[in-house]
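re: that chain from earlier
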Amino acid sequence: MKPPSLEDKPPGLPFHGVDRMWSVSVAQILLWNFRAMPSNLHIDEFWLTDEYALYLRHVRGDTKLGMRFGELGINPTTGTPPIDSEQEGDYLYWTIFDTPPQREWTDEFGCEWWGDAPERSWSDAVDGARLITFVERAENRGA
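^ sequence. v structure.
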C-alpha cells in the first residue's frame, strides 16, 4: 500500500469550539499523519471518548505508550485556540514524539500513559465510554 499523498489529507474544519465533528476531524488528520510520515511508531489502538478526548495506545521502538489528548482546542505552547482541525492534528502528531522520561500510569497491556491528565483516575478514564474507535486492538479484531 502506498503512503497517502497531500491530496488524500482530510480537509481541516475551522475551529468554532470542541464538539464531536471537530474532534473526529482532528483524529482523522492525526491518523493521516501517522500513515503519511515514516516513523518507528505503530498505532495499537486509537479512540475518542464522550468527553471529546483522544486516547492513543502505540508502540515506538520497543516501548509501549499511551497518550491522552484531553484539551483539544488549546495550543499548550501559545494558550490560544487552533485555526482549524488540520493545525491541531498536525500539532498533536509532533507532540507524540515529546514523550517524557517518566510516565504517569501503566495499564494492563503494559502501556505507559502520559499527556493531559484526566479529572478522574487514569484507569477510569482509559476504560471510560467511547464515542468512536478509529483503530481497534488486534485481539479485538480477531487477528
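Strands lie at 41-49, 54-60, 63-69, 105-106, 112-115, 130-135.
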